[in-house]
Design brief:
The protein is 52% helix and 0% strand. The chain has helices spanning 28-48, 57-69, 74-88.
Length: 94
Amino acid sequence: MPYTVDAATSGCYEGTTVLINKFGLRDAEALAEVEAAVVPAKAAMWEAKPLCETFDFGHYMVRGLMAKLRVLSNEQCMDLVKDIQKNYHLPYPA
């Protein structure tokens, strides 16, 4: 089966090269203006009050893992935690 994703338009609004965004903006210039205001504001907020000391790959992985754990039953969640502890040699909780 051939690979059919168009890198220029995948994840974009139909008929555009504008990425689907939380603002619903389909015009590239309008989106650029909003991003030019939002990104520096968010960066300033982070500098003033960081949500964590480091934001590295480990932090990203934990967030992804937590999202996956939320949909599991308690038993499935505990099985996964035990498997991670075993395979990654993490300490077991007391």
